[in-house]
Specification:
Elements (H helix, E strand, L loop, with lengths): L11 E5 L3 H25 L2 H20 L1 E6 L3 E7 L5 E5 L3 E7 L3 H5 L3 E4 L3 E5 L4 E7 L4 E6 L3 H16 L3
Parallel strand pairs: 7-9
Antiparallel strand pairs: 1-2, 2-3, 3-4, 5-8, 6-7, 8-9
Helix pairs in contact: 1-2
């Protein structure tokens, strides 16, 4: 009989978003653009262009600040979900995962930035995590995602599922 590890008895719920420093940097850039649009309005009285430009920038800022990536793991499966505009939901039952490992890839080198990226051999869900977990599914497809502090617990769920399948205690 398999013993219950503390790592495999409590479901994992993790919420990520883009790093705060990057969001603040983008916000400052866009604030500068809004100031330039206001100056254009003052000099040329071009209300339509200035107002529309500022509105579009505020929409982009709102979108960037609302992006979220959710990771949930329990005894049955690993779930990945993104919101709000690109609403992707992936549910991987532990039995569907052929192999899983923690990798040391960096976001910029391996994936070229943040967000949903194709890394040459599989899709990556790259937000603000510390460790990359790579999955190879039964259909040979690869998925990569970042986790903040839960790599050990997620690997424990996977190992427990693998032990159940092979009958090793």
């Amino acid at each position: 009989m398999l013993s219950q590890s503390p790592l495999t008895t409590v479901p994992i719920n993790e919420t990520q978003q883009m790093p705060r420093w990057l969001m603040n940097f983008i916000a400052l850039l866009m604030l500068g653009i809004i100031v330039l649009l206001v100056l254009q309005f003052v000099q040329h009285r071009d209300q339509m262009a200035s107002g529309l430009g500022a509105f579009v920038i505020l929409l982009i800022l709102g979108f960037l600040f609302s992006l979220r990536f959710y990771v949930t793991a329990d005894a049955d499966s690993l779930q990945l979900r993104t919101t709000p505009v690109i609403n992707i939901r992936k549910n991987f039952r532990w039995e569907e995962i052929k192999s899983m490992k923690v990798e040391g890839k960096t976001r910029i080198v391996a994936f070229g930035g943040y967000g949903i990226r194709f890394a040459g051999d599989g899709w990556g869900y790259i937000y603000n995590g510390k460790e990359v977990i790579s999955l190879v599914l039964e259909n040979k497809r690869k998925k990569y995602y970042f986790t903040t502090d839960h790599a050990d617990a997620i690997m424990a769920y996977y190992e427990r599922s693998r032990q159940k399948r092979t009958g090793n205690a």
